[in-house]
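Example 3.2
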Amino acid sequence: MAIIRPFRALRPTPGNAAGVAAVPYDVVNTEEARALAEDNPLSFLHVSRAEIDLPPDTDIHADAVYAKALDAFTTLRREAPLVEDAEPALYFYRLVMGSHAQTGLAACYSVDEYEGDLIKKHERTRRDKEDDRTRHITTLRAQTGPVFLTYRASSAVDQVAARATACPPLFDFTAPDGVRHTVWPITGADLDAVVQAFAALPCLYIADGHHRAASAARTRKALADQGQTSEEANCFYAVAFPDNQTQILPYNRVVRDLAGLTPEAFLAEVKRRFPVTGGTPSPRRRGEVTMYLEGTWYALTLNAGGAAAGSSAISTLDVSLLQENLLAPVLKTADPRTDKRIDFVGGIRGTGELERLVNQGKAAVAFSMFATGVDELMQIADAGEIMPPKSTWFEPKLRDGLLSHLI
């Protein structure tokens, strides 16, 4: 079952929601965050990336950064203002990007279920990133950035969503990137109905936000160790979307050099390993990747012979096949987690970014991937396996600061 709890959200007033809402803390670096928030004192980036209001050489993990985050949070609560809902509620949160729309349930989800793998994972977390968000949560005593969950679509949830989203919304605005964000509160009979519908789900899956979820669990333990037990710390703020609405974009690869090979020798080695034809910037199907080299696109068939008997779900992923059969043995990028010669480009930037990097000499070759499917993510999580790094890029992104969970 999937346990969900309503919560008294700390949120901006409707008129200030667009100004407060900010991109997730981990999709921008310090310079990008500073530029986005520069002319907007209400931007939640002043809280989630507080180093932007300190000297440029400040260590992002310095004590002063967390102190500044608390100061900014306190100021924003007073001046935006941020208000706490009088009664606990759940919220439907719709994202619309172009022709794509997805509606998720914003709620408090169970830390116990996270730790017991009823909320399934597909990604390893890094200790330093966990340390950062754990300290951020414990300093603010608030979870301000949602975890992005997914689940196998439920007609019972869909029915409640259809009713609730026919009512006037709490928030409705279009962000500077063109994504529309609409939020509806759920109370009364619809709240009870959606709680029961989620209770019938066998499990949930983390799509994006593994570090936020891990940090919520660590926060609960840290508070308990300090004798500050809190019922609210037993859960974490997340938005869960049905799998048939969740959108994954490609996560493309660029490599800075050809490991000592000439372009001609490298292309000959590629042709020795894969069927190669003339290509377009975007692959047409799973099992195909397109490669940009010396101003030309090529299409590579990654697994012309089909999957071997007994193959694991991970080994048949396009990103795995490319890594094991070309990037590692030919381009010598043995560990994509640590090798600085390889970089990853989110699909939201388009294939034009791949061409630009190669044409400007910032990369020697680029690979345009077919997007990993939600079904593949779930299959791997069900098997208790870990996906290769940079396998999925979820769009559109939820915004920080619209709904915060006080603990």
